[in-house]
Amino acid sequence: PRLPMLSPQLPLLRTALGALLSVLLALPPAFAQPAPPSTPDATYAEAHALYDQRLYGQAARAFRAFTEANPTHPRHADGLYFGGLSSLGAGDIGRAERQFDAFREQYPNYPLSGQVRLALGEYYFGASDFGQAEGYLTDALRDSLDAEGAARVRYLLGRTQLELGRSTTALGYFTRTASQYPETIYAPRALFDAGRVASDLGQHARAADALGMLAEDYAEAPENALVGLALANALARTKQRQEAVTELNRRVPTLSG
Fold first, then answer.
1. For a surface tag, which of 3, 46, 102, 148 has the fewest beta carbons within 10 Å of its beta carbon?
2. Beta carbons of 237 and 205 less than 8 angstroms apart
3. Cβ within 8 Å of residue 141, ≥6 positions away
4. Do the Cβ atoms of 138 and 168 come closer than 8 Å?
5. Closest CA to 122 of 134, 112, 113
6. Cα within 13 Å of Cα(168), Cβ side
7. pTM score, two decimals?
């Protein structure tokens, strides 16, 4: 039997079909839909995720986009506040202050409002601009803060006064921090600094009282590990030599640290 003759057009047809198939495969499926636009809640969550990752520059831009696009959203106040913190973290103090000003102006009774001046005071303290830090922290004394926040304001004011060369004023802040907020993490820190400053001022009885309270009431605090020699020295200078020897003997295992 004779074989059927192949059409001379068949190779060309195969090439055309192959090209068509490639085009069809490159097309999106008919059922594919474009991605839905991000919701305001998702935008806020994305901005906060950047903040939590300490990507402050990106977070600041994301919070700014959220607040500008959603001025009536329930998280608008949070967006302004965390946008300000993000700007601080990115070192953009001018923008941070503008955001915080807008936050306090629009939401004066919002729970986070009292944290603004503390945040700015902390920023300037960390930047060694102690004059600016003093101004913001002094203003923060009037803000409504929880115990930890109020104690932090007073403790940082004590540290700021020390940096400004005002040891007596610093001692007052340290003493009040420890007495007014004994349950906070700042109480043992304040007692340690109070003892150190009082000793430098020659007020050895006061130093012994502060360091003795630290040793007795905050045995688990990290500052307690540093108190041995300072307390013994203060006790010795107040003629309490036997108590000084006792303290040294008690601390011998830890003094090398």
1. 3
2. no
3. 153, 154, 157
4. no
5. 134
6. 1
7. 0.69
Residue 202 corresponds to which amino acid? G
Q: Please answer whether residues 137 and 157 qualify as being in contact, where contact means their C-beta atoms are separated by less than 8 angstroms.
A: yes
pLDDT beneath 50, residues of the chain:
1-4, 6, 32, 241-245, 247-249, 251-257
Q: What does each C-alpha distance from 43 to 12, 67, 71, 73 come to in angstroms?
A: 53, 10, 13, 12
Residue in this structure with the two tokens 């913001």, named with its chain if needed: 136
Q: How far apart are CA 226 and CA 174, in angstroms?
A: 17
CB atoms within 10 A of CB 155: 24
**DSSP 8-class letter at 75:** T
Per-residue model confidence as pLDDT tens digits over 207-240: 888 888 888 888 888 877 666 556 555 555 555 5
Q: What is the pLDDT of residue 114?
A: 78
Place of tokens 């590990």: 225
Q: Which of 36, 88, 90, 45 is nearest to 63 (CA)?
A: 45
Residues 137, 152: Cα–Cα separation, whole Å? 10
